[in-house]
Design brief:
heterodimer; A: mainly alpha; Amino acid/polyamine transporter I; 20 helices; 67% helix; disordered N terminus; B: mainly alpha; 3 domains; two-stranded antiparallel sheet; elongated
Chain lengths: 485, 131
């Protein structure tokens, strides 16, 4: 999950959240000096979206197979595709209008209110941190599996590689050596190429030669309830696509580029997800696939080609490391932005004097990430990430209704107006409810644990933290007063 | 509303900030990590043991058995994975309770946010401009 490090006039070393905070505090004349350059087109938006999400094809999605069987996972993949199409439509309108870097956190501040913004900030932090943890787990497991496959003597302690992944990437972020969009483009392209090469090598034109769907699919082991349950991990195919709209301030023509880039990104992911499902379900018994940590790498092993195995090893490693790097970047900036706004202690709002990074926010999450990485199963950390995303999507469905009510069409300039309102919002809300039910099936206690966390944090914010927050400073958009206020 | 005095928040001490930061860590540990550590959360599954398992007794056809073996599994090693199934039996009162928690959370969040939001809007649009 990587936010573009934009080319900017005066803020080249500043991350978007810093730029946003700086812009929020600066007087109108100074605002122009820190404005981000609008240099990105639909292609960049597409690349950002696919780069954020592609790791989801390499791991995690296959737990949907475990919850409902391979056929249920495919149904969940497409249902989740509809959910994310609604997310992309709604988010394109809001972000192309609330053109403030910082994404959904800034939007919630302007549309719903401080407590919602605090929660959205936490959703972002928890979703990114738990995805970072998941990536570290996969990196450790992958290296262990590859070492075993090579027949290396001795044992590899995968926990050492998990810790190394978290610490090394946190250090890079601390020093400000962030994965740039160009680097991520290369890594993402290599990872995407790995999926396509594997698909071609599996000879889909000759059923039975390599892919053996007829013997391996296994139907619906849990019946139709399995389709509902599989929706839980079906979200993992696309989780993070809404990050495309974080680049709203840097896009040349938001009205065109945001919906076009996001929608083509969604189409690409739908294709990649289907290819991934097709190859994996044709190579592995569903019981194995449903609990595998590195399904695409395992699929490559099953083809018997050493070169393909190496390619998928690198593809998976690239995708997870790039994603973890972006997650540290994004989680720390969300935490930093909350510190700047005093939603969290202002201590976290500090910028490193030399490296100009939110170093305290970066370091703060290292122990949490290590603790979860070395001692928590992958499906649990993924579930935490999915739940935080899901709460955000639920809020998004309600947020667009408030947005249209407070500033009706024509009252402010919108970059993009999504069609058929309120149908996408209603559909999104229904699919969110379905996904809560899906998580409840098998992971109900974890759902309650996550809600306990957000409810307790909200109580802490209301009873204690909000008194440190400046009121009027939270609204920074040059809009008229909202209707009804 | 014109002439409203902007709210001036208190300055938080360094100790207070450290306490707040530690509190967040403790909250993550207690609500998210502890249930996992105590095996209270996730993986609502049942396990069926198969004594002296064979691929046939585990319900695996020859193609499946071949793929398991390529992945380095024997029937004994695969039995645990194959025998583990999700338990989707649930009672409606638990569903209702969970739903009430989620709905209540969102209702409270929207209502309280709106109260805070009115204060923000009033100060931003009607408040006294700061010097």
């Amino acid at each position: 999950m990587t936010t573009i490090q934009p080319t900017a006039e005066r803020v080249s070393a500043q991350p978007p959240a810093e730029a946003s905070a700086a812009a929020a505090q600066a007087p109108p004349t100074a605002h122009r000096k820190v404005a981000l350059l609008r240099v990105l087109g639909p292609g960049h938006v597409w690349a950002l979206g696919v780069g954020i999400v592609l790791v989801g094809e390499f791991m995690g999605w296959n737990f949907a197979v475990g919850k409902g069987g391979a056929v249920a996972a495919l149904a969940a993949c497409w249902l989740a595709g509809i959910l994310y199409t609604c997310v992309a439509m709604i988010d394109s309108e809001i972000t192309s209008t609330v053109a403030a870097a910082g994404g959904q956190y800034a939007q919630a501040k302007h549309i719903i209110g401080p407590l919602a913004a605090f929660n959205v900030g936490l959703y972002l932090v928890m979703a990114y941190t738990m995805l970072e943890v998941s990536n570290a787990i996969v990196a450790g497991d992958l290296i262990e599996a590859f070492a075993q496959s090579l027949g290396l003597e001795g044992t590899v302690d995968k926990r050492a590689f998990m810790v190394l992944t978290v610490v090394a990437l946190a250090f890079l972020n601390y020093r400000g050596v962030l994965a740039t969009l160009t680097l991520n483009l290369v890594i993402t392209s290599a990872a995407f190429a790995a999926i396509v090469v594997l698909f071609v090598a599996a000879q889909p034109w000759a059923p039975g030669a390599v892919l053996k769907h007829e013997a391996l699919l296994g139907g619906l082991p849990y019946g139709s309830l399995g389709i509902l349950a599989a929706m839980h991990f079906g979200l993992w195919f696309y989780l993070g696509i809404e990050g495309t709209t974080q680049a709203a301030e840097e896009v040349r023509s938001p009205a065109r580029a945001l919906p076009l880039g996001t929608m083509t990104g969604m189409m690409t992911l739908l294709i990649a997800a289907t290819l991934t499902w097709y190859v994996c379900s044709g190579l592995m018994p569903w019981e194995y696939l449903g609990q595998a940590v590195t399904p695409l790498y395992d699929a490559a092993r099953l083809t018997g080609s050493r070169w393909l195995e190496l390619f998928l090893f690198l593809g998976t490693l690239f995708a997870t490391v790039a994603s973890a790097n972006g997650c540290i970047n994004d989680a720390s900036r969300a935490w930093f932005a909350m510190g700047r706004d005093r939603y969290m202690p202002v201590w976290f709002g500090a910028v490193h004097p030399t490296y100009r990074t939110p170093y305290r926010a970066i370091v703060f999450f290292v122990p949490i990430a290590i603790l979860f990485a070395v001692s928590t199963p992958l499906d649990q950390t993924i579930t935490f990430s999915i739940l935080s995303g899901l709460l955000g999507y639920t809020l998004m469905a309600l947020s667009i209704v408030l947005f249209r009510r407070k500033w009706p069409l024509g009252s402010i300039q919108r970059g993009y107006v999504h069609p058929l309102h309120p149908l996408p919002a209603a559909l999104l809300l229904i699919l969110c409810v379905v996904t809560y039910l899906a998580v409840f099936l098998g992971y109900g206690t974890q759902l309650v644990a996550m809600m306990t966390f957000y409810i307790t944090a909200s109580a802490w914010f209301v009873l204690h933290r909000y008194k440190y927050v400046r009121r009027g400073d939270q609204f920074t958009m040059p809009w008229p007063k909202p209707r009804g206020y | 509303m014109a002439g409203r005095t902007p709210y001036e928040p208190p300055v938080q001490s360094v100790v207070g900030q450290i306490v707040d930061a530690v509190l967040m860590l403790v909250l993550v540990f207690i609500t998210l990590y502890l249930p996992l550590l105590l095996k209270l959360a996730g993986g609502g599954t049942t396990a069926t043991a198969t004594p002296n398992p064979t691929w046939e007794s585990l319900g695996q056809n020859p193609t499946m058995a071949g793929q398991w073996e390529k992945l380095g599994f024997t029937p004994e090693k695969a039995a645990g994975i194959i025998g583990t199934r999700f338990d989707y039996a649930f009672n409606w009162s638990l569903v209702a309770l969970t739903a009430a928690i989620i709905v209540g959370y969102f209702i409270f969040m929207f209502r309280y946010s709106d109260r805070e939001y009115r204060e923000v809007i009033a100060e931003h649009f009607d408040g006294t401009p700061k010097a």
